[in-house]
Amino acid sequence: MASLSLPTVESIREQFPILQQPDSHGRDIVYLDNGASTQKPRCVIDKEVEVYTKYYANAYRGVYEFGQRIDDEVELSRESVRGLIGAASKEEIIFTAGTTMSLNLLAYAWGSHVLKPGDEIILSRMEHHANIVPWQLVAQKTGATIRYVPLDDQYRFDGQAFEQILNSRTKIVSLTGMSNVLGATIPVQQVAEAAHSVGAVFILDAAQSILHQPTDVMKQGIDFLAFSGHKIYGPSGVGVLYGKQELLEQMPPFLGGGHMIDQVFDDHSTWAAAPAKFEAGTLPIAQAIALRPAIELIIEVGFDWIEKHEKQLLIQATEQLQKIPGLKIYGPAVSEKGAMVSFTLEGAHPQDLAFLLNRHGVCVRHGHHCAMPLHKILDVSATVRASFGLYNTHQEVDKLTEAIHQARKKLRLT
Length: 414
Fold this sequence. Notes:
The chain has 414 residues and is an alpha/beta fold. The chain is built from 14 helices and 15 strands. Helix 3 (65-85) packs across helix 10.
């Protein structure tokens, strides 16, 4: 991997092959859909190719050379995740298929294990469907009740309302670290402390927040954490579930099969220790291994640089878009949100606007972003979202703004 001791946007962009080529129309690619998925650096691509061409084997199955190499590489990735999030042990790191799988695992294994009729699960009004639907299903199964923390009038997580909702019946608090629509963040450590004060566990959906700001599960008091590799410049198909060791020991397995067992008898089985207990079957092997260079890239660039750079892009985009007639931005003030802007344009359907922006090579997301309850609160069916990453530039923000102006002309809104 190229040295990034003094990172610049140019030196970072050089590591992403897809950004070095035009699209099918010969235009520069302006990729502003990082909230959905990020592009991949050469080090990640090369690592996956290396696995498949030089030493591929199933993990934790063979003592032959390839098998041993695969085991070692997977464990190195597990350690890199541990370092990224500040976990106490790499045995607290479980590889899954992604954030959605991790949250479903928690809902069914932990939720079904601890919840009973009358217990309460706390979510917020800015959750992604992946942190709503699994809890709905387990609440229906167990008789528990879901309660939602509202937003305040600035589109922020309402901390006072959260404190009022918390009570002795609260068993699980599961919240996003950053809204995938509003960009709003939560005070993670304070929320964790409040949850623990009533005996609840705190789960952080870090799918959006993990690539924008540092996370320390021990310092912040996070009991469980989930994120996806494809959100942090790593491969798709691999995710992470972190859990405190004592909680993983208490939690029954979610899936049964090979690797997660200790002993299998005719009428019952016993389980391996975590993380194997929660990694039934064959892992996403090459993807888990290729997650490590993505994490190394983030750490080498540094969160100080990432936060500063992305904040500058966010400020620029907000200032420019606010000047466009008929455009409304949804979310808190720039100082209280992550690197994304969701908006509507009066007289333009979000899908039409996204299509017209693509005519200028600008890639954005449109729709309800898997957050339908939040959009009902916003009183719109859909929004357009531009979300930024470490490789985006100020020139790309300018292109976004100009493309919106051109779309307004095309739609005869001027």
